[in-house]
UniProtKB/TrEMBL annotation:
Protein name as annotated: Glutamate ABC superfamily ATP binding cassette transporter, membrane protein
Main location: membrane
Organism: Schleiferilactobacillus perolens DSM 12744
GO cellular component, one term: ATP-binding cassette (ABC) transporter complex
Keyword field: Cell membrane, Membrane, Signal, Transmembrane, Transmembrane helix, Transport
Highest taxon of source: Bacteria
Gene Ontology molecular function: any one: ligand-gated monoatomic ion channel activity
Length: 486
């Protein structure tokens, strides 16, 4: 009996402990979280308002569907191209970004039921004499990469005899027309109308063509998420919430109601200082991300660069080969290509997600590390060869001679290059906006998508870069004087 009592007590304790540690099937645990990629500059479907909160028809619709279907979403505003590539690589679960349903996309992804019907329109500069496609012969037209409107323009350009120039975001495409570099641009009708109501000096001159619908995209295996989206969309249309979301950003269809809807999401003061005041916090957030990425990347790049540079001066053919190959490959690869390869190419190979921040650090580490290795190697080789020979003749081994004699002299040559490389890395972070890192340049794009004040916002961004780089340049000169004086 005594042994049975112990056994019973032990069993009871074990079962109690098991139920304590095992997570209960709560509603919170049952709610799956999906990562959804979206664009950053496609108002009124997705953009950041004056409080730097992501809003728009797509954002509100996705959140509303998640609520009625009992799941959670993590919205990642990374840009249209980056979102599509991330979905292909398995980095995210879905894309909602004003994505037209096309046969090509249906072959690659699961596409939802259409949630908004659109057509492609052509817009020209206000006052332009061009009123039809026939007048485009011999002219240049602006399009946005990866869009159905861009695909439509390419499909008719031979028929009407015009050439195209491609841009990554809508604002730059619009500005190319307003400045007269291109005579027209092609855009989805609601997006173009929103830009015009916001103040863009363009006019729509054609009726909507190539009618299609926007759809939500997932990979072929994610049938569960697609079923939830379609079911949620039907519920929202039935209870009237879908109509409320659309009218919030586009009004009831009249120009007056559209202008009123747009005004709610715009800054009241559109002067330079008014925009600077309204967006100061957002710009500083972008600068903070830029500095963080720069500092972390330069630390790793310096470590990698020194190691690879030292390999290049060792009396070993294999070591020097590794150094030369590393410098040749990563200094020769364009930074944009390297970033996309690491963020979208590598995950598809290894089957593991690579966060955008990590991909950005790896990209800069490899690229800037190659340049650092080159000037480390060059700085050591710039020291008179007689210094090494003299040290070796005194009985010092190679490693000690390198550390005690050569490196102290080589560092004086390298220090200015180290600081200059910091400046170069700071500027190179702007390229990482392509993979969705919200650094200063990407922040500028996001602000412009809301207010279409490209010249004023880019002036602010340029001034911030100039101030930071000027400070770093002064620091570089101060360090150089200190090293030379020592």
């Amino acid at each position: 009996m005594h042994r049975k009592s112990y056994l019973t007590a032990f069993t009871t304790l074990f079962v109690a402990l098991l139920f304590t540690l095992w997570p209960a099937p709560t509603a919170q645990a049952a709610e799956k979280t999906y990562t959804i990629g979206t664009d950053v500059t496609y108002a009124p479907f997705e953009f950041a308002n004056e409080k730097n909160q992501y809003v728009g028809i797509d954002i509100d619709l996705m959140n509303a569907i998640a609520k009625v279907e009992g799941f959670k979403v993590n919205i990642k505003p990374v840009g249209f191209n980056a979102a599509v590539q991330a979905l292909e690589a398995g980095q995210i679960d879905g894309v909602i970004a004003g994505m037209s349903i096309t046969p090509e996309r249906q072959q690659k992804f699961l596409m939802s039921d259409p949630y908004y019907k659109v057509g492609v329109v052509m817009a020209v500069k206000q006052g332009s004499k061009i009123k039809s496609l026939k007048q485009l012969k011999g002219q240049r037209v602006a399009v946005k990469t990866g869009t159905a409107a861009g695909a439509y323009a390419l499909s008719v350009k031979d028929k009407y005899g015009f050439s195209t120039v491609t841009f990554d975001d809508s604002n730059n495409m619009y500005q190319d027309v307003t400045t007269g570099n291109s005579v027209a641009c092609f855009e989805d009708s609601p997006v173009m109308q929103y830009a015009i109501n916001t103040g863009m000096k363009l006019s729509i001159v054609t009726k909507p063509a190539n009618p299609t619908g926007y759809g939500f995209a997932t990979n072929k295996k994610n049938t569960a998420l697609m079923a939830k989206f379609n079911a949620g969309l039907k519920k929202l249309k039935a209870n009237g919430q879908y109509t409320k979301i659309v009218q919030k950003y586009l009004g009831t269809g009249s120009k007056k109601s559209q202008a009123a809807a747009n005004k709610k999401n715009q800054e009241t003061d559109r002067s330079f200082w008014g925009l600077l005041k309204a967006n100061w916090g957002t710009l500083m957030g972008g600068l903070q991300e830029t500095l963080l990425v720069t500092i972390v990347a330069i630390i790793f790049a310096t470590i990698v660069g020194i190691l690879i540079g030292l390999l290049g001066v060792l009396p070993n053919v294999f070591a020097r080969g590794i150094s030369t190959t590393f410098i040749y490959i990563f200094r020769g690869l364009p930074l944009l290509v390297l970033a996309l390869f690491i963020y979208t190419g590598v995950p598809s190979l290894i089957g593991t997600k690579v966060p955008a921040f990590v991909a950005g650090i790896i990209t800069l580490t490899l690229n800037e590390g190659a340049y650092t290795a080159a000037f480390v190697k060059g700085g050591i080789e710039a020291v008179d060869v007689g210094q090494m020979e003299a040290a070796r003749s005194l009985g010092l081994p190679f490693g000690k001679a390198l550390r005690k004699v050569i490196l102290p002299q080589g560092i004086r040559i390298m220090v200015p290059s180290f600081v200059n490389q910091f400046i170069i890395t700071l500027k190179d972070t702007s390229i990482l906006s392509i993979i969705g890192i919200l650094e200063l340049t990407q922040t500028g794009k996001i602000i412009i998508a809301r207010n279409m004040e490209g010249f004023k916002i880019w002036t602010m961004v340029a001034i911030i870069y100039v101030v930071i780089i000027t400070l770093l340049t002064w620091f570089s000169k101060w360090v150089q004087k200190k090293v030379q004086a020592s």
